[in-house]
Amino acid sequence: MTETTKIAFLMQGPAGPHVLWSDVGRRLAEGGAEVDFLFPDVALNDLSHVHVEHDLYVLKSGSALGLSLAGALHAAGAAILNPYPVAAMCRDKIVTSAVLARGGAPTPETWVTEDPQQLPALLDGGPIVVKPFRGSRGVGVQVIREPSDFDELEFDPGPLFVQRYHPPDGLDYKMYVIGERVCGVRRIWPARTYEEKLGEVFEPDEELTAIARACAAAIGADIFGFDVVFSDGRPFVVDLSGFPGFKGVPDAAALLAAEIEAAARRVTRGEPVIAGAAR
Amino acid sequence: MIVRRVPPVPSPVLLEVYDILSRRGYEVEDAIAEEVLQRPDRLEPEHDLYVLKSHTELSLSLAGVLEAQGARILNPYPNCAATQNKFIASRILRAAGVPVPDTWAMTEPALLADEVASRPLLVKPYMGHRGAGIRIVHDVDALADARADYPQLVQEFIPGPGEDLKVYVVGDQVFAVSKPFSETSFSVPGRPVPVEPEVRDAALRTGAAFGLGLYGLDMIESSDGPVVVDVNYFPGYKGVPDAAAMIADYIDAYAQGLITLGEPSVAAGQGRVAGPI
Question: In B49-102, which ranges are E strands?
């Protein structure tokens, strides 16, 4: 590379140092890249004049503004990791679940409607879980086991995302994919102590690695996380996050820096951000 | 057709479109996404072409599912999604050379102190539709008061003649109606007006930039010429003479593959420019 590669991180929330991402940025800078951290949520963003001035944008932010800014950059021809269409899709559980199911990942049965009256009939096949279709990480999730459970529930207007509820055998598996590396963290759920929240790192077996590969191919991403529960010994992918925190992943900073660097090299060679991807 | 009925009666324009297409041998089915229980993980394209009429989040998501499964959708899903997000739409419009108001994302009101001191600003939801939730502010305090818990954009207020210009487009055919602005004005038919060359130019540039064939624009006729303040896919076409026949012709041609619509993008050559983000 004759010119310095310019990489920007689109971060969420107020400006400030972030342990993992500062480390990733430092490693990229040591590799010769020029690295900027942008905090669109607290900056003055002149939207009609958004210009592409970095070779690669790393979209860490999951805020509506961060994602929208990525959309504007995408339209302006910017290279973004994960690519904007992938990041936008990961925010929409309806599309994500359909794409994962089609890609062969084991997902629970899934329904969508805006009419809560449609839901009680689903209990004939077992308990269900209702999730906000743009939510993440378990916020606003309601498990419904009995028709009488509906008496105490109020649903916000808008799409209801419903899945068959498979009670976990005891542990919640947080899976992380960084390029070729697949890593898992097992946690007792719900966690009661800080140690339980941190969980225990484990090497995924063939089954979980195959699920990770299927998810990666289905959504077209290099860097993402997903949650698996085992119910009666059967795995189910119950959530997927476009750019998680990688809490507990050993060597996360080095792995992420290497993956981002490889993506930046592809971009400067005129190749797609994701190796082998059409988009 | 993925439709949403407000009020719960199909619009006469749509009924006529169904009728014309049926007579040409198409099998036309309409579905309201909100009233049924869908299985997105099992959804398979069953139609040769889906026409996305509805603007609800659920319909747009289902269009996303269908698109991911290889279905053809008019207007294409990413193009519709780009019009719905005003942050993204504003960037695409400006780059296409369409006159648009200056636009910022609402973050810290203090960052816009200089702007609001020099001219009034509008605050609106970034996914808003049909003029709901729009506020006009004249100072930083009002700007801070207008903040909501959902993302908003702040836009230069363009003074106009008190009437909105609603522009409706089918392919390269452009129509305009004028109507007084109000929060309920979308349901009121306007008064057809001649299409000025500047209006036509802005409308067709918008269609090319977003990759839309059936779309509408809201414009304000300012003292400096028309300014585009909103873009939407598949509008109501109220007050447009022979709208149904033109829409049916367009859908017919699109179904036959005679028309292609590109992805929303900033025109070639305007991409990698240095400048403030």
Answer: 50-51, 73-74
